[in-house]
Design a protein that fits this description.
Distance between the termini: 79 Å
Strand order of the largest sheet: 2-6-7-10-1-11-12-13-14
Shape: elongated
């Protein structure tokens, strides 16, 4: 019997707000434990929650990007069972009225578009960090209350590859919108998978298994692929799939049992009494949407319209900071293609070699733009551009134009001298003159190469090319 996977994903996104979801405590990392808290975070008596405005704006923007219906009222609920990692013993969330619902995302797998429906997007607060020792558990409340959005898909996903593409797109949306840094390995974006199997053609759901806290897109696919095979093997041998919570073990590339589920947990939801419903005006919602950053999908179309090929455009949008660098570098008219080539080639090489992000790259995009313009107008050659590039790496404050002037001092710029050199090259390559007269224009590139070789590259390429064409026509 053939089986198909039925998969739904729950993605938690940690938001990059300045303060927490319901308190004024800062959202910051790397500080001493329990130093980034205020009385509300520690559930002191008499403290009252207030809703983070920027978190609401972020949730609206992501909901809009996911084609969701946006609720015009904010309602919050208590998830009321004992939380050992929240001092007040419960979590504030949005169970009954999520801010976004009935959305979708389209992923492309193997050249085929697949629409994945999204049930809901809701806001809630994160829990504290637990540090387990052999004889005790230490609690760091710096993370308690950090704003989260949870995005819950419907069970429309059928493979690990579809799931990984879906997570990849969610991460792209939240990073390009500057809602989150999307770093799964650091917990900024966390993914839980619900997976079951059923005979192909059946509409009945099988027994669901949950895989918790997957920390990379690659592991999402690997965990699903393994779990699908495990469940198919059980079913093929006449065994039942148990309702379980599992985790993915990277060493063995297998899912491992954490606990068996017997009944659904009763979270005892009820409306949060300390936060009255908040009416969102149409102006507030539209302003949040109209001030959104440009999404990767929109940038991809714009880069194609600029004339970039599919490969270059996709490399640029693979990272928000790289695409922003490209946009700044092309802002004042430098060649789109040359800028893309420098970013994908020389700059990416420096980043990889030094394990550096583009955010830490020392050369400003405006300096790269100046450098490319000098190449375009023939002031310098690629060889000299790389010399300038390397000097800028060592000292980014140097002026590109001043560096190019230093190089130009050693350049042969006298036209009479250049004509003499051109004729020497032509005399040594009579067959090239014949080819040019027969309409083979490519020979000009060969002759320019010979001229550069003869002069050690110390010649103005724009002037040399113009004079070379003139001399060829005279022959």
């Amino acid at each position: 019997m053939d089986y198909e996977a039925v998969i739904g994903l729950e993605i938690h996104v940690e938001m990059k707000t300045k303060s927490k979801m319901f308190s004024s405590a800062p959202v910051s990392f790397g500080y001493e434990p329990n130093t980034q808290t205020v009385p509300l975070d520690l559930a002191f008596p008499g403290t009252m929650p207030t809703v983070n405005k920027q978190a609401v704006i972020n949730a609206i923007r992501v909901s809009h990007a996911l084609h969701m219906d946006i609720d015009r009222e904010l309602w919050f609920d208590r998830k009321n069972y004992f939380y050992s990692d929240l001092p007040k013993g419960y979590q504030i969330t949005q169970q009954h009225r999520p801010i976004g619902k009935n959305g979708y995302l389209t992923v492309n797998v193997g050249g085929v578009d697949k629409k994945i429906r999204i049930e809901r997007l809701h806001m809630e607060e994160d829990t504290c960090k637990q540090l387990h020792s052999y004889d005790c558990t230490l609690l760091d409340y710096n993370r308690a209350g950090v704003p989260l959005i949870e995005i819950v898909s419907l069970p429309d996903i059928r493979s690990g590859e579809e799931a990984s593409k879906y997570v990849e797109q969610i991460r792209s949306i939240v990073t390009f919108l500057d809602v989150s840094d999307g770093k799964m390995e650091e917990g900024s974006l966390r993914c839980d998978v619900n997976i079951s199997i059923r005979p192909v053609g059946s509409e009945t759901f099988g027994t669901k298994v949950e895989i918790k806290n997957l920390n990379s897109i690659a592991n999402v696919q690997k965990a699903i692929d393994f779990e699908y095979k495990r469940q198919v093997e059980l079913a093929s041998n006449g065994q039942e799939v148990q309702q379980e919570t599992r985790r993915f073990d990277e060493a063995s590339k297998q899912t491992v049992l954490m606990r068996v589920k017997t009944d659904a947990v009763d979270y005892k939801y009820f409306i949060e009494p300390n936060i009255t419903p908040i009416r969102l005006s149409e102006t507030f919602i539209q302003d949040a949407i109209e001030t959104m950053n440009e999404l990767a999908e929109s940038k991809l179309k714009r880069y194609r319209d600029m004339g970039l090929n599919e490969y270059d455009a996709n490399i640029l949008i693979s990272n928000k900071d790289i695409s922003n660098y490209f946009d700044r570098a092309t802002r004042d008219g430098a060649s789109y293609k040359l800028i893309a080539n420098w970013i994908i080639g020389d700059i990416q090489s420096v980043l990889n070699k030094n394990n550096m992000s583009i955010a830490d790259f020392p050369i400003q995009p405006e300096s790269l733009s100046e450098l490319v313009k000098l190449i375009e107008n023939g002031t310098i050659q690629n060889k000299h551009a790389r010399e300038i590039f390397n000097k800028l790496l060592e000292n980014p404050s140097l002026c590109v134009k001043e560096l190019s002037k230093d190089i130009s001092k050693d350049m042969i710029g006298d036209e009479n001298e250049i004509v003499v050199l051109i004729n020497e090259v032509l005399d040594n390559n009579p067959q090239s003159i014949t080819e040019y007269k027969n309409g083979r224009d490519r020979v000009v590139g060969f002759l320019m190469g010979q001229l550069m070789k003869k002069t050690g590259g110390k010649i103005n390429p724009a002037i040399a090319n113009k004079l070379l064409l003139e001399q060829l026509k005279r022959r």
